[in-house]
Write a structure and sequence with these properties.
The chain is mainly alpha-helical and about 220 residues long. Helix content is about 75%, strand content about 0%. The relative contact order is 0.05. The mean pLDDT is about 80.
C-alpha cells in the first residue's frame, strides 16, 4: 500500500510536456510582444498579437457558448420559458454583422443599455455624488491632532479646487490665489492617481513574469 501510494505521488509530481509547452510558448510570445518597444514594426509582434486575439476570441466563444447552455438552454428545459426571449434578443445582436439587416441589432442593444442604465442610476447617484459630498462634510474640530489635520486638509483642498473651476467670473485677488493653489492640488491628485495606476500595472507585470520564470511546477522538480 505504501509503495502504491508513493508511486501515485511521484506520478502527480511529474511535469508533463504540456506544462513545458505552455511555459515556453507563453514566454516566447511575451518576448515577442516586447519587441514593439523598439518603435518599429516586427513580424514577431504581429505573430504574438494575432495569436493573442485568436486565442482570446476562441476562448470567449467557448465560454459564452457554455454559459448560454448552462444558464439558458438547461433552464428552459426545466420550465423557465421566459429565457426564450433572452435567447431571441441575443440572436438578434448577430444581425449586426449583416449590412442590410444590422438595424435589427439595435433593439436588443437598446433594451440592454436602458435596463443597465436604470439599474446603475441609483448606485451612481449615491456612490458618485452623495457619498463623496457627505465624506467631505466632516467636523473640523474634535479627535486627535492627526484627525484634525486630515479633516482640515480635506476641507481646504475642496475649497481651493472648487475655486479653480470658477469660469463665470474673472478670478482676481484671493480667488486667483485660491484657484492657483487648487490647481497645484489637482496636479498632486492626478500625479498620485497616475503613480497608483503605474504601480498596479507594474505589479501585474511582475506577477506575469514570475509566472513564467517560476512556473507552478518548478518547485515539484526539486522535490
Amino acid at each position: 500500500m505504501d509503495t502504491q501510494g508513493s508511486r501515485k505521488e511521484e506520478e502527480n509530481k511529474m511535469v508533463t510536456m504540456i506544462d513545458y509547452s505552455i511555459t515556453i510558448v507563453g514566454a516566447f510570445l511575451a518576448m515577442c510582444m516586447f519587441t514593439t518597444l523598439y518603435g518599429k514594426s516586427s513580424p514577431l509582434y504581429a505573430l504574438a498579437e494575432e495569436s493573442y486575439i485568436g486565442f482570446g476570441t476562441g476562448l470567449t466563444i467557448v465560454i459564452n457558448a457554455e454559459y448560454i447552455w448552462r444558464t439558458g438552454i438547461v433552464n428552459i428545459m426545466k420550465g423557465d420559458y421566459i429565457l426564450i426571449l433572452a435567447l431571441i434578443l441575443g440572436a438578434m445582436i448577430l444581425f449586426r454583422v449583416h449590412p442590410k439587416y444590422n438595424y435589427v441589432a439595435r433593439i436588443p442593444i437598446a433594451i440592454a443599455l436602458g435596463a443597465q442604465f436604470g439599474l446603475s442610476l441609483r448606485t451612481i447617484i449615491f456612490s458618485g455624488f452623495i457619498q463623496q459630498i457627505t465624506a467631505s462634510i466632516v467636523p473640523l474640530f474634535g479627535g486627535d491632532m492627526m484627525t484634525m489635520l486630515y479633516r482640515w486638509t480635506i476641507a481646504l483642498s475642496v475649497i481651493f479646487m472648487m475655486t479653480f473651476f470658477f469660469y463665470s467670473i474673472e478670478l482676481t485677488g484671493p480667488l486667483a490665489t485660491s484657484a492657483k493653489i487648487g490647481e497645484y492640488f489637482l496636479y498632486t491628485a492626478f500625479g498620485a492617481i497616475f503613480a497608483q495606476t503605474f504601480m498596479g500595472r507594474l505589479g501585474l507585470f511582475v506577477g506575469f513574469m514570475q509566472s513564467y520564470t517560476v512556473p507552478p511546477w518548478l518547485s515539484l522538480i526539486h522535490i
